[in-house]
Amino acid sequence: EHIGRMRKDGGGLICTTLTYDIAEKLGLKYLVDIFRMTGLDIFRYLYPNDIPYDEKSAFSITINHRKTFTGIPDRDRALTISEFSKLIGKASNADEYSIRLEFGKNFRSPGHVHLLIASRDLLKGRRGHTELSTTLMLMAGLIPSATIVEMLGDDGYSLPYKKAKDYAMEHNYPFIEGNQIVEWWENWSE
Predict the structure, then answer these.
(1) Which has the least CB within 10 A, 23, 48, 84, 147?
(2) Reduced to 3 DSSP states, what percent helix, strand and coil does the chain have, rounded to the nearest 5?
(3) Sign of the torsion formed by the C-alpha atoms of 65, 122, 60 and 24
(4) The domain spanning residue 83 has which CATH number?
(5) What separation in angstroms does the CA of 101 have from each of 84, 96, 167?
């Protein structure tokens, strides 16, 4: 039900975040680094050195849980996300070898859930949606992974601030701004 709502009401890519440390433990890298490591000329030409909003993309690989069929239906993506979250919950206390084996045993790539790796220093390194949502999970004492979607308006562009706020009020969701998360994090991490 949650993935369906994100797909219908959000409209952007549905992505799942993880911390840099857990990504390292799982052997995951940023997609731009994976492309560079292939040595293929095409990825040199496609290098994203002109991203207007940031200097580095948080994108990593895409995954599906092995128990999914195509991986795209809401139910398939929900299974992938929930099982990936469980894996992340185990990662801190697991050794690299066994957690990577478990990752490979339960997931395949490419898939339909986009993984986003937060900056190594979270909000000290970058203050994008990936870092903000992952930080919120950490401060709440939850598994440090959030599933996020950018809300789009009928015109196909990002949903305007007021409309996002109205949506939150209408659905009885808290409306939290990035600067609030940064302020809470600065107090929390002292």
Answers:
(1) 48
(2) 50, 15, 35
(3) negative
(4) 3.90.870.10
(5) 13, 9, 41
Supply the pLDDT for residue 96.
Answer: 96
Low-confidence ranges of the chain (pLDDT < 70): 55
pLDDT for res 53:
75
- Of how many residues is the chain composed? 190
Whole-number pLDDT of residue 17: 98
* Alpha carbons 26 and 90: distance in angstroms, whole number: 11
pTM over 0.70: yes
Question: For strand 59-65 and strand 11-18, is the pairing parallel, antiparallel, or unpaired?
Answer: unpaired
pLDDT at 55: 65
Torsion of CA 180, 3, 27, 126, to 10 degrees: -20
Domain enclosing residue 170, as ranges: 2-188
Residue type, 49: N
Cα torsion 68, 74, 77, 82 to 10°: value is: -110
